[in-house]
Design goal:
With about 950 residues, the chain is mostly helical. About 45% of the residues are buried. Helix 15 packs antiparallel against helix 16, helix 22 crosses helix 24 and helix 33 packs parallel to helix 35. Strands 1, 2, 3, 4 and 5 form a five-stranded mixed beta sheet that branches. Helix content is about 60%, strand content about 5%. The chain folds into four domains: about 230 residues, Beta Polymerase, domain 2 (2-Layer Sandwich), CATH 3.30.460.10; about 140 residues, Four Helix Bundle (Hemerythrin (Met), subunit A); about 170 residues, Beta Polymerase, domain 2, CATH 3.30.460.10; about 130 residues, Up-down Bundle (Four Helix Bundle (Hemerythrin (Met), subunit A)). It has 40 helices and twelve strands.
């Protein structure tokens, strides 16, 4: 007998049985040609459907008659059909047998419909998985609705502190949670309830847990029990806390305690797809809030990759032991490997990128591709493989409605599967299947490559060096041979680090990760440009994170990040210190493309918005923490690009200034929102306005911010209605509101959080200095500039500009600034005022000493150039208003040159000297050194500045 004949014999017989029944019922039997073609394919591929039609002929006839086989359900259709079936079948009193029978009837009907549409090519994979998941949801919800009412009637009602009835929370896990259920899947459920207490109105004393355990047991029995009508879904509750040995149902408080203190790493993985199916909305939200921080860490969590790799290895070992390598779910290149790829990267990055906190794996893969976390070429291959393997899974299970993932081993079974998949024979099918699995396994191996057991990190010399088992002379030989210029000092430092780690009493996992990491670290440091410096600084960083094993895992999993750490800290102790203070900055080193790709203002605003969007608007503490992470991370990226020559000096300051501007603007917005919620808004503000203008003076105003620069700020408000109050629930005067807003703004910038401070702030340049009001009206500020300001304050105004606040106020300030700068002045009096102020500054601030030159305050330094530029602007702005256009020294010098106001090459010489001195200033900051240089450095530039000072300032 041929293979095709063998496949057709049983289905034909079963079809004949249904036809005989139909004829006996007087039905119109012949099917349309297209319908018959689908029926033939389905009967060949699914013995379950063929037997079901023969055993329950009226049910199949009803499916044919209603037309549901030929159309996709609209939202709510399936729920309506389940509800109608149960309503028709259930009596007016509790009858669990009737409930079980009705659930099994509706499951059998819908399962037949779904298989028909799947195999017949009438539904795509997404529709099939969605219908199966919706069927499970509807069965669970409708069954629970009735069982909950019945249980309350029998045992009483569990209520919360306000007397409201409590409901059972059912958590769907795995494929049910992600709405990716397959044709014959079990459903993994976890049960919870809102809070402990005593049941009211019951016949006997009963606590909430006893009530909900009984209710959950009844629900599991309704779905899982094998009756004469079959089952609805096989229910697995072993994913609950403590597994089979744990209580079937737990309160939210007990769940939180378990997941915070006792849960295992694989449970985080399992919870990625968790979805709460039932319960009061407030309780559902509380449960989701409880689970989210357990699953998704706030830092990049590379420890999850190690855990998932170990889980996969255990599965692979078990499969090999059982001879089940042909398992398309758990075997090599199977469905689980695709899920592991996506979910590992979700666990790593989902805490920092909330968009990745989604359940369906295809959506996850697409997001990973968009973010360059997976190669662009890999995503379509993984998606295609996933779709193909899930279809194979469904076609295997459709045959007998049996939960299996094994490819058939017999020839008829292989031919049946191949034809169900649209292939003429097994060979054609197997070739395509193997191609998909090979590509999946290749990508899986790339993501989960065991860096701790492969590659240069396990160099035996460095492993022995770290273990401390070598004779000193041999250890020194290894260090010297690997480019350490001071091997004795390096050995002492390494030994001290090892002993310090031993004293800290690391966990077994932490000690093992350190054993894996240090040989790799030593190899990478030895290959860096400055091994001795890098060793000292990298070990200092590791000392700060050695008890936080997620960071150790990240460096093991991403040697590129370790290489960047060695490179950058070897070049800059400032970078090492920043990472020691804020280990989250290690996350910035993972992807060199991101590390060295600097953002301008628009992109910075998008990045900050993405960081803050998932945070509760009322959680000010976490908002401030994210703001600091944003600023510090971007400053580190600027420093990395600066050190490696990826960005010119003048652009460094541009980038640093824009980071500060974006941060200050967001702080102003947050401060205003929190204050306005309490006091309301001052009168006269437009939509989105705060009524305040933040002025940047000094380096911030002059677009010349450096590493570690503080922010010179002046705050103005536009209120012009004396005595006016805010319009909120607790009104206050507008003047008081603006001063409180200023206080809150400064506090939010300077407050110390776990990530440190945002910026240091200096407010001494405001009118009347530290004695003046914190926030002054623009009108009062304009009057002060016109009548009371000193010459040095007009010098400072040259470098002032709005960095945050209302555009209307900014335009009004610009007019005040221009009028002040362009006022006619007596040149001799102006020169004398500027020289006198410069002399006072030099006497009090010059930190130069024997053999060292102060780059900013020394004679011929940065401040001399700035004062010459400011003198020139104030000297000639009345006749040449264009001098008031800019706030930075370089463009002011360019304007002076264009207007031919400085003799000869003065402007060009000052510009060259300024850039050279600023470059040295930046380098000193990155080396964490005082802003001085040896007397024999920058000699020509300093001499030229001194000469020009004498010529221009007559001193």
């Amino acid at each position: 007998m041929s293979g095709l004949a063998a496949l057709g014999e049983a289905p034909d017989r079963l079809w004949q049985e249904w036809l005989a029944w139909a004829q006996a019922q007087g039905r119109m039997v012949p099917l349309a040609a297209d319908l018959e073609a689908v029926r033939t394919r389905v009967w060949e591929a699914s013995e379950y459907c063929a037997q079901g039609a023969a055993r329950y002929p009226a049910d199949f006839a009803a499916l044919l008659d209603c037309g549901d086989l030929g159309r996709a359900y609209a939202p709510g259709d399936l729920a309506a059909r389940v509800a109608a079936t149960l309503a028709a079948a259930l009596p007016g009193h509790p009858d669990e047998a009737a409930l079980q029978r009705a659930l099994r009837v509706v499951r059998r009907r819908e399962q037949t419909r779904i298989i028909w549409r799947d195999i017949g090519g009438l539904a795509g994979l997404d529709e099939t998985l969605e219908d199966l998941s919706e069927l499970a949801d509807c069965c669970i919800r409708t069954a629970l609705d009735r069982l909950q009412d019945w249980t309350r009637a029998e045992l009483g009602t569990p209520r919360d502190a306000q007397g409201r009835p409590q409901c059972l929370l059912v958590i769907g896990m795995g494929k049910l949670g992600a709405r990716e259920l397959n044709l014959s899947s079990d459903i993994d459920l976890i049960f919870a309830y809102p809070a402990q207490g005593q049941v009211t109105d019951g016949p006997r004393p009963l606590d909430h847990q006893q009530f909900f355990v009984r209710l959950a047991q009844r629900l599991v029995q309704a779905l899982n029990a094998q009756t004469a009508d079959g089952f609805v879904f096989r229910v697995d509750t072993r994913l609950r806390p403590f597994g089979d040995s744990g209580p079937l149902v737990m309160s939210l408080d007990a769940l939180e305690d378990y997941y915070q203190s006792q849960a295992r790493e694989w449970e985080r993985y399992a919870m990625i797809k968790a979805r709460v199916l039932t319960g009061d909305p407030a309780a559902v939200a509380a449960l989701e809030d409880l689970l989210r921080p357990f699953v998704y860490r706030r830092y990049l969590d590379f420890g999850s990759i190690e855990s998932l790799r170990e889980m996969k290895q255990m599965i692979a070992k078990e499969l090999h032991h059982k001879g089940m390598d042909a398992n398309i779910k758990l075997g090599p290149g199977g469905i689980r490997e695709i899920e592991f790829i996506g979910q590992a990267l979700q666990l790593v990055r989902g805490g920092r990128d909330p968009a990745l906190q989604v359940r369906p794996i295809r959506q996850v893969l697409a997001l990973l591709g968009e973010r360059d976390l997976l190669p662009a070429s890999a995503v379509p291959h993984l998606d295609a493989a996933y779709c193909f393997l899930r279809l194979v899974e469904n076609r295997i299970q459709a045959y007998k409605d049996k939960q299996t993932h094994l490819l058939p081993a017999d020839d008829p079974g292989r031919l049946r599967l191949a034809r169900a998949m649209g292939f003429p024979d097994w060979g054609a099918f197997a070739a395509v299947l193997e191609g998909h699995r090979r590509r999946v396994q290749g990508q899986f191996d790339q993501v989960f490559s065991a860096t701790q057991t492969e590659g240069p990190g396990q160099d035996p010399d460095f492993a022995a060096l770290w273990s401390g088992c070598l004779e000193e002379c041999r250890a020194l030989e290894i260090l010297a041979a690997n480019h350490f210029s001071a091997p004795q000092a390096a050995l002492v430092r390494l030994t001290a680090f090892r002993e310090a780690c031993a004293r800290k009493g690391l966990s077994t996992r932490g000690a093992e990760r350190l054993r894996q990491l240090l040989p790799l670290t030593l190899r990478i440091i030895a290959a860096s440009e400055a091994p001795d410096l890098a060793l000292e600084r990298v070990l200092k960083v590791l000392e700060s994170v050695v008890r936080r094993t997620a960071y150790l895992a990240m460096l093991i999993e991403r040697p590129m990040a370790l290489a960047q750490l060695a490179r950058l800290t070897g070049m800059s102790p400032w970078i090492a210190e920043q990472i020691v203070r804020q280990p989250l900055l290690l996350d910035e080193l993972i992807d060199p493309r991101r590390l060295y790709a600097l953002h301008r203002r628009a992109d910075l605003e998008v990045e900050l918005e993405a960081l803050l969007a998932p945070i509760d608007p009322d959680d000010l503490e976490q908002q401030l923490e994210r703001l600091r992470q944003f600023a510090h991370g971007n400053i580190l990226r600027v420093a990395a690009a600066d050190l490696t020559g990826g960005v010119p000096l003048m652009k460094v300051s541009d980038y640093l200034t824009e980071v500060a501007e974006v941060a200050v603007a967001r702080v102003l917005s947050l401060a205003f929102a929190h204050l306005a919620e309490r006091h309301g808004r001052p009168p006269g503000l437009g939509a989105g306005d705060t009524g305040v203008l933040v002025l940047g003076y000094g380096k911030l105003g002059g677009l010349e911010l450096g590493y570690g620069s503080d922010l010179d700020l002046v705050l103005l408000h536009g209120g012009d209605q004396p005595g006016a109050d805010t319009d909120g629930p607790k009104p206050t005067s507008a003047e008081q509101f603006y001063n409180r807003l200023g206080q809150r703004l400064i506090h939010m910038i300077t407050a110390r959080t776990p990530a440190g401070i945002l910026y240091e702030v200096d407010m001494r340049l405001r009118p009347d200095g530290n004695k003046g009001m914190l926030v002054r009206s623009l009108a009062a500020y304009a009057d002060y500039q016109a009548t009371a300001a000193w010459t040095w304050e007009h010098q400072a105004l040259i470098r002032a500009r709005p960095v945050a606040g209302d555009p209307g106020l900014a335009a009004r300030f610009a007019a005040v600034r221009r009028a002040t700068i362009c006022r006619p002045r007596d040149p001799a009096r102006l020169r004398e005022d500027v020289r006198a102020m410069r002399q006072r500054m030099r006497e009090s601030l010059d930190k130069g000493e024997r053999g060292r030159f102060d780059l900013k305050q020394g004679r011929g330094g940065i401040a001399d150039i700035e004062f010459m530029v400011q003198y020139s602007v104030l000297r000639w702005a009345a006749a040449h208003p264009a001098l008031a256009d800019w706030t930075d020294n370089i463009r002011q010098l360019e304007t002076l040159a264009r207007l031919d106001l400085l003799p000869g090459a003065t402007a060009a010489d000052l510009t060259a000297a300024y850039k050279a001195l600023r470059g040295a200033y930046h380098r000193s900051a990155l080396q964490d050194q005082p802003k001085t240089v040896a007397d024999d450095q920058l000699v020509p530039e300093r001499a030229r500045v001194r000469a020009l000072w004498r010529d221009l300032m007559g001193d």
